[in-house]
Specification:
- With about 180 residues, the protein is α+β, with helices and mostly antiparallel strands.
- It has a single domain, classed as Nuclear Transport Factor 2, Chain: A.
- The protein has an eight-stranded mixed beta sheet.
- α1 packs antiparallel against α2.
- It is globular.
- The chain starts with a strand and ends in a 12-residue tail after the last strand.
């Protein structure tokens, strides 16, 4: 189910007018198209779809007993040279990221991922830089972060080359306990 731009793992549905919805696997029920904030060109809508689709799959993988084809879609969206800087500041390569993700299948049942404020920052040749807000919610607890990503494209396909996540201080989540 999609509500207010949130993806509830495993239940496609309908969103509100400001929801950012992606093109999903054609075997799924299609959600009503949402209105992404436009920054310039028509390509912004496509970019919103790409960001939304990956996060829909992540929510499905992390929050349900998803079939391996969901993992395949996620890994297929990542460039071979993919790297990610997570909110702790640790940098991980593609293999490490995917290994951790594989083990996290259905680890956060019912997770919702909301993606908003999608902005194309730059486009040059085959590279696109995008920034967006992402919030993972489980029940009443959420963690919000600002994400900057570089995608590489041939005009038809888009691969995530690098992602940098920064925790957002105004998150609704309670502060983590000191270890």
């Amino acid at each position: 189910m999609v509500k207010a731009g949130r993806w509830v793992a495993g239940v496609p549905g309908v969103g509100e007018a400001r929801a950012v919805l992606g093109r999903f696997d054609p075997r799924r029920r299609q959600a009503e198209p949402g209105a992404a904030e436009r920054v310039g060109e028509a390509a912004d809508v496509e970019l919103s779809d790409i960001v939304a689709a990956l996060h829909f799959d992540l929510a499905e993988w992390l929050g349900t007993d998803a079939p391996p084809k969901v993992f395949d879609r996620i890994s297929g969206a990542l460039d071979e040279q993919f790297t990610s800087v997570v909110t702790t500041g640790q940098s991980v390569d593609r293999e490490t990221f995917l290994s951790g993700l594989w083990g996290a299948r259905n680890a956060v049942a019912g997770v919702e991922i909301e993606v908003s404020e999608i902005r194309e920052l730059a486009r040059s040749g085959n590279l696109i830089v995008v920034r967006f807000a992402a919030e993972n919610r489980i029940g009443g607890t959420g963690t919000r972060r600002t994400v900057t990503a570089v995608l590489v494209t041939d005009g038809r396909t888009h691969l995530w080359e690098t992602v940098h996540e920064t925790a957002t201080p105004d998150s609704e989540s309670p502060a983590p306990a000191a270890e």
